[in-house]
Amino acid sequence: MVDIAYTRIEGINPAGDSFSFGWKQLIPEIEVLSATEWAEGMAGVWEGLWSQIDQHYTPQTSFNRVATQYFEDGVLTGSGEALMSTIGLETYPISMPEQCAMVVTLKTAEPGRDGRGRFYLPAMSTVMLQANGRFSSAGVTVMLDWLEDFNNGTTGFAGAGPWVVAPANNSVAHLVTQLRIGDRVDSQRRRNNLGPELYQSFTIS
Prior knowledge:
This protein is of the alpha+beta class. It has one domain (4-187). The protein has helices at 35-49, 137-158; strands spanning 4-12, 18-26, 62-72, 75-87, 100-108, 116-121, 163-165, 173-181, 186-187. It is globular, with a radius of gyration of 18 Å.
């Protein structure tokens, strides 16, 4: 097995439900840092770049925690967290439905499914949409530029960017060489029974 660090960004969406997304890196690249130090460093990079994308999220969307876990030979050997306070702008207060997501595809030099990965960015403001319901080209460009800067910032800590780890047995890891975003809104399935829902009805007599 490869030794990995799994980092997650966590937050709350406008419906009050929690979300998280993350990526994996190899521990040998960051072994000089504890899991807590790594989480604190990541939070600093995130907060420093937040102004690039805050207009794409509503003020009811908050990203509030970075969590890092170290796994060696499949065993959890360390964990850490750092709290943040980053929320969207008042300018665009209407969010897409909570299951709508922007997908970031991770590509490596390895062909096939073992060489690809992905993570889902939580529902954004409707300002990101074109009239046809797809993400605008300008919006996608902003997110890609932000991801590039974010990757460069994390590389400053890790010495290398994210890795795709073969999920079957965590025995192989491939360095990500390209991050890609399409213009189609994806749907990230989640449980609906965790939050309140308001119903309307009529009675058939």
